[in-house]
Every structure is written in C-alpha cells, then in structure tokens.
Amino acid sequence: MMIPQGLGILRSVFPRTRQAGPSPPSAGHGPVLGDRPDPRRFLVTANLFGTGWRMIFLINLPLGLAAVLLGARLFPKDVRGHAATRSTCPEWPWSARPCCCWSTLVQGRELGWPGWTYAAMAASVPLLALFGLHQRRVSRAGGSPLVEPSLFANRAFVAALATGLVFFAAMSGLMLTLTLTMQLGFGWTALHAGATMIPFSLGIVPGAILAGGVLGPRYGRRVLHAGMLVAALGTFGLWATVAHWGLRTGTWELAPALVVTGFGMGLIMAPFFDIALAGVTDEQNGSASGVLNAVQQLGGSIGVAALGTGFFSWAASSGWVDASGWTLGCAAAALLGSAAIAFALPMAARPDSGH
To answer: Of 85, 154, 102, 148, which is closest to residue 290 (Cα–Cα)?
Structure first.
C-alpha cells in the first residue's frame, strides 16, 4: 500500500527535474549489518530480548514509527488532504489472484511443485480476467477502481509493464544466483557474501546520480538502454569470473564486474519509473504507480522461481560453477531482452508540469 502512494506523491509534489534520485544502497549493506557478529550485536546474532534471529523483523518497528512521524510532519497538506471517491465494491477479495500466483512461484520449488501449485497458478488467469471485468464495471458506474482500466489502452504504459516485468525478473534472479553461488558453492558465510556485494551498491550510487540528474533529462530513454547493456555486460563479467576461477573465486575477483553491474542498475532505476509513467495523466498516477509496483513484485517472483529452480537443477547435474554460469547467462539475456522491449517506451519523461 505504501510504495504506490509514495510514487504518486513524489510525482505530484516535485518537479520532474527533482524526482529521479539514486536507488538506496540498502540491498548491499543490509546483509552486512544483518550478519555482524558480537560485539557489534547487529540483528541476527544480537539476540536482544531473547528474540534470536527474529530481530530482523523487529527492526522494522522503530524504523516504521519514525517514518510515520516524519510523514505526518513533512507531507504537504494539499496531498494528504485530497478526498477520494470510494469504489462501489470492496477490492480486498481480489487479492486472491496475486496470492495464487506469487506464493506458488516462490514456494513451488521448495515444495517439489505438487499439483496444487500448478492449479493455483492456473486459477490466477481467470481471476485476473474477472478482476478486469470488475474494474471496468466500477469505472462505468462512476466509482473509483483500484486499477484504472484505461491504462491498458496506453501502449507506452503496457510496454513499460513488459519492460519492468523482464528487468526485475532478471535483477532478482541475478541477486539470488550470486547469493546461492557464494554461500552454497564457495562455502562463504552470510557476512562474507554480504560484504562482497558492497561494490554492487557502490556502483549503483554514481549510476543513479548521473542518470537522475544529468543523463536522464538530456537523453531520456537512451539512458535505460545504456544501463541495461552495461548491466548485461557486468553480468557476463560475473559469469566469466566464476568460470575462470571456479570455486577459488574470491571477493576481489568479483568486485570489478559487480561495480559495472551496479552502475548499469543505477542507470536504469533512476529514470525508469519517470519514463514508464510519462504517458499517463495526473489522475492516473496513483493507479499506474500501483500497477507498476505490482508488476515489479511479480517480475521478482518469476525471476526467483525460474532461475532458482534452474540453478538447483543445474547444480545437481553439473555442479555449482556450471549452475552459476547458466543462471547468470539467463539473467544477462533477460537484461538484453528488456532493452529490446524498452524501444516501445516514451523517448523521455513528461515535461515539468509546473507543480
């Protein structure tokens, strides 16, 4: 519920030139902090109040409270006070559709893909069709649909959904493959694997800053293509590194390719949402942001399920090094595929609307 509203507020409050920014490096720093041993007492090993590893969940309480207090104080009143028309029908029953699809994608391999997982994924298709009919009915009745049906008549936005689906599947599959390879293949600890990902985060920051403040406003969609190509090149570099060094691969051997991959990801993430939402109206911002975020989550689930299943299958037959190579190759191919689909996106973000 939070992420789509955040995107809508950002687009409503800030001029376009101030909307894009660096992606947070938390993905790289989180695993490092999460596995620090005593006496640093971070999360997993801290065992505060006897919670053990469950402290990873409790850390969200003070952070969430701080976000609520800051939001209540800093959000502009004209955004917070907008009234919204209510839908004529409750929307919560339709959450069964993503549950049918996403939960089975994530849990299927671990459970051995029993028959009910395929049935659940198949059931998501008619549920999606019924959901679309329901949203059209609400819109025609003058209500406020959860997903604005007119969005799917917008070719540019549909292309953005396809691009995001493939890209986020590649990114999630890439991160999963690296984590599994380092911990299961190389035998590294979670701390070692997390620290190894720091160059990836360090690459994201300059890429996002350049794309958001300099390259994106000037070159538009071309920055996305460049980022996807650079990220694919970095992924091929990771594959070549693991293929060359094998199980003797170390942190420093992976660092150059990780920096390149992170830099490409930064070039993509900063302008992607702004360009993806370039073809929607101000009234459609909230719905479009929600759909885009849902597709992001779906792409991540598909990437984890598909590449995770492939990784373990290849590892069982060919070993960890070959499994890593095949899955990294698939991730790089998906990045190149997203670059091809991105040609259907708008050339640039919308001009500043003057907010």
So the answer is: 148
Residue 142 lies in a domain: no
Task: Evaluate whether residue 110 is within a structural domain.
Answer: no
Query: How many domains, in total, are found in the chain?
Result: 1
Average pLDDT rounded to a whole number, residues 103-123: 78
- CB of 31 within 8 A of CB of 201? no
Which pLDDT band, with edges at 50, 70 and 90, does 142 fall under?
A: confident
pLDDT of residue 208: 87
Residue type present at position 218? R
Percent of the chain with pLDDT over 90: 29
51 — alpha (psi -120 to 50), left (phi > 0) or beta?
Answer: alpha
Provide φ and ψ at 91, rounded to 5°: -100, -15
Domain extent for 301: 2-81+147-344
d(CA 254, CA 196): 8
* Residue 138 in domain: no
pTM: 0.75
Helix (H), strand (E) at residue 185: none
Half-sphere exposure (Cβ direction) of 267: Cα atoms closer than 13 Å: 22
pLDDT attached to residue 5: 66
The enclosing domain of 278 has a CATH number of 1.20.1250.20
